[in-house]
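worker-03 picked up job from queue 'complexes'. Input manifest follows; two sequence lines, order preserved.
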Amino acid sequence: MGNSDRFRRTGFWLLSHQAGGCEDAASLAKAGARVLDQLEQGLSPLIGQRGARLLLTRAWQTARAQHTFLGTSPGSLEAEGTLEELAAQVDGLDPAQVRDGITAVVANALALLSDFIGEGLVTRQVRRIWPELPRAKIPTDEEVGDESI
Amino acid sequence: MSQSERVRIHRLPTGVPGLDEVLGGGLPEYSLNLITGEPGAGKTILTQQILFANATPARPAIYFTLAGEPPIKILRYQQQFSFFEPDKVDETIHFVSLADEVRRGELEQVLARIMQEMEAIQPALVAVDGFRSITQMERRQGTMDMLAFMQELAFVLTGWHATSFIVMEGRASEIAGIPIASIADGLLYLTQDTMRNSIVRKLQVVKMRGQAQIVGLHTFRISEDGIRVFPRILTRRARIERQQPRRRLDTGVPGLDEIMGGGIPLGDAVLVAGPSGSGKTLLGTQFITAGAAQGQPGVLVIFEEHPQEFVSRASNMGLDLDELTQKGLLRILYMRPLDLSVDEALFAISEAIDEVAAQRVVIDSVSGFELALAPAFREDFRESLYRLVSSLTGAGVSVLLTVELVESFEGSRFSPYLVSFLADDLVLLRYIEIESRLAPVIVIVKMRSSQHSRAVHAVEITHHGLVVGEALEGYWGILSNAPMLRRRGESEPGD
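worker-03 finished. Artifact:
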């Protein structure tokens, strides 16, 4: 399993966990905003709030190439309130499409971070920010085996 | 105050080889230390190495960065060092960026965040990196001034009972005027200078309250294992009383022991001087192997030839150095040329000697040794070599040094490295011309407390090594390079 697949599984679990069983597009968008906010807060000690926000912006922009609905958001994540506004913009969209798009943003952010500090330390950061995340959801090479999401 | 009433200061091992010795036993617990130097000097590496060596779950550490290098970059680059343990990140060592607080220009906020994190993590070790940015930041009007901030920070760190480090960029002259330099208990200054094509890194413990540090500049090297400091003064070896008469060591060169008056006195330093190709290295190798054959371990320090070639050439002479190495009777130390510091070289030699408990040491050659040093260290070379040789011979280790002799048709002279003062004994190898052929000869110029031969002896380089032959009788003017056969009844000119 490659890094991107691992990080996608992590993003998927985090989104589902935040959504708490709600499957509509708006709820998923709100849950996604909370995940990204937690990630931003969690990474702030490492790269400062501004650095964390720029990382998420880049992750968002990369995901937008494949998930065009993300392009409807005004400007970049640097603009305050972008995440909150997302929920209103996805109203009426296919929930699966929204889920995939937000999962891609989270996965991209973790992959970007991994390019910088390596997968091992990214895994540690993720587990620090979300201690409730089951180990199997962001497995290392040794831990791969549980393919269920 | 009685001894029992005095506070005992616990010292933390730094985890930086050589540094504890320089500090006078480690870092005083609860001390506030300023680690300073120019960019690229190794300040962050040093601090990280200390934290990784000391942080535990019960004694966690916080690494604050103010501005400039954020923690994510520190994590990126520091994980390349072997001391970096990923499992300690966020478990025992917590990385916190204070860049946002610094950018807002409010020192109160910086201090408040430091206190907030310290209360949350309860650290035993705290480092604040990028302190230069604090001294340069533009503060909002009416906010805390720099002196108050530094004093407050010092109180916070000390009051918390944390051993702390402030990492700050700057030259020595700039640091001296900054209040934190006088507040700090310890001040370490790191430099990195370019000397011709070599980089020379040095560390100075400017102050370390409550203990006797080794003063002066100590060289250090940064490798994949982090920083290693080479204390300027080698740990003194225990001296042994010389017994009289002293035991003599077999040189392994047939005929040589006899003309020396029974071999080399134990614990002597012998200088073997001769021109290139005269057999100096071979003599040294035979000396080492003869010792090993009697269970006396040895160290061969070579500078000019790669060990593989050295071993191969010795093997051609029937000297199996690989076997001796495998048996733990020999350590061949090859010094990487051109950028060594004297202290680093002496440390490596000393370490190799301890590794095999060497009783015989050969340094081949003194001239190669000096050339292997970074230019900046060559001035100190003779004095440093003298310290090493004295320390070894004082401890009963016998040392044989080879030195290049510059040969000309007018005669021979020592190379510019006048090192004969190092040695108790002096052996001279020469080429002379006899009947239009170059012939190697050997003469014992000086051998303390020995009834040694003063004659010039023929020497032969055979397939089994050097062999000393008969004295060259019947010639005069041998050392002139062109000896004349003495006819019966003829006396030397001037007689």
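worker-03 released lock.
Residues 107-121 of chain B form the longest helix (15 residues).
The first strand of chain B starts at residue 11 and ends at 12.
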